[in-house]
Amino acid sequence: MFLGTYTNKIDDKNRMAVPAKFRDQLGGKCMLTKGFDECLYIYTMEDFEVMAAKIAALPQSDADFREFIRDFFGNSELCELDGQGRIKIPQNLREYAHITKDLVTTGAMNKVEIWSAETKADFDLAKKMKDSKFTDKLREFSI
Amino acid sequence: MFLGTYTNKIDDKNRMAVPAKFRDQLGGKCMLTKGFDECLYIYTMEDFEVMAAKIAALPQSDADFREFIRDFFGNSELCELDGQGRIKIPQNLREYAHITKDLVTTGAMNKVEIWSAETKADFDLAKKMKDSKFTDKLREFSI
DNA sequence: AGATTTTACCCCACTTTTCCCCACTTTTAC
DNA sequence: GTAAAAGTGGGGAAAAGTGGGGTAAAATCT
């Protein structure tokens, strides 16, 4: 289970250090994908396989499915951690997540989220604005 | 499994470098075909054989099938990678995909898609317009 | 058929990117 | 406070991407 929030930087070679706490669970490599809300996800190989198998089974005859398959696999990358526990983030994913320098990396149960620090700050601010609504929703689920 | 998105160029001799990550899976040669959505597909020899067998088995008595068979095989090409890992893209396929100079090559599970950069940009823009539908779909398959 | 032009393909050269490795700084643990 | 681990930066070799020359094969023309 991935837990906790970390701040880190991407360097000029587009490498990001995976927080040390997450490395053992990933076992030297991971799948980096496009996530919701303009952030990126890191999945374990196993979890990715499960998703990929479901998605690959969609009918190619449907244009929306084709787009979806293209978007999903085209924005997924197998990343091997280097000697220092870093992964390289490819251009298309950096652009999607507005990644330039400062990052926030946060564990989210079965995946790790990677945010541009700025995007995350904006997002958190926006969340505050609608916080009462959010609390109401939690109440529904008795949390 | 083909993954990731790459940008590349076609040169004056109509050659395109196949992204290095895809070469091992193709093993020196591949089948280049006309894809959906005004892009081209690269299949492994094995996957192409399977498809070709299915398509060849369609009843010739049906005019629509005859046309499809003609179109499919007429726009398929066996491509051998040269010493630098490039394939030559024939004229009919270049025209179909509006290929002139800049390309986007994207892995889509069992095939590789080759797009003219301009066509892909237009396509992606159109996709953004209907993004909510798309996001819902992703949500279905996310874990 | 022979000559000429075009196309294909092998090879070499240059530029850019990637990746491995080492070094330094900062944080964590004891 | 000291040692170890984590995070960050960068040099340099290797690989990937790109362009182009030269020769052989194919197509076209006369």
Description:
Chain A is an alpha+beta fold. Chain A is 42% helix and 27% strand. Chain A is built from six helices and eight strands; from the N terminus they run ββαββααββαββαα. A six-stranded antiparallel beta sheet of chain A has the order 1-7-8-4-3-5. In chain A, a hairpin with a 2-residue loop joins strand 7 and strand 8. The longest helix of chain A is centred in the last third of the chain and has 13 residues. The first copy, chain A, starts with a strand and ends with a helix. Chains A and B meet through helix 2, helix 3 and strand 5 of A and strand 7 and helix 6 of B. Chain A binds a DNA duplex (30 and 30 nucleotides) through loops.
Condensed summary:
The structure is a homodimer of 143-residue chains. Helix content of chain A is 42%, strand content 27%.
Order of helices and strands of chain A: EEHEEHHEEHEEHH
Of all chain pairs, the largest interface belongs to: A-B, 27 and 23 residues
Order of strands across the main sheet of chain A: 1-7-8-4-3-5
Cα-to-Cα separation, first versus last residue of chain A: 20 Å
User: Which percent range describes the beta-strand content of chain A?
Assistant: 25-35%
Q: Got a strand count of chain A?
A: 8
Q: What are the low-pLDDT stretches of chain A, counting only 5+ consecutive residues below 50?
A: none
Quaternary structure type: homodimer
Give the biggest sheet of chain A.
Answer: 6 strands, antiparallel
Radius of gyration from the alpha-carbon trace of chain A, in angstroms: 16 Å
**Helix count of chain A, per DSSP?**
6
Which word captures the global form of chain A?
A: globular
Arithmetic mean of pLDDT of chain A = 89
Helix/sheet category of chain A: alpha+beta
Helix proportion of chain A: 40-55%
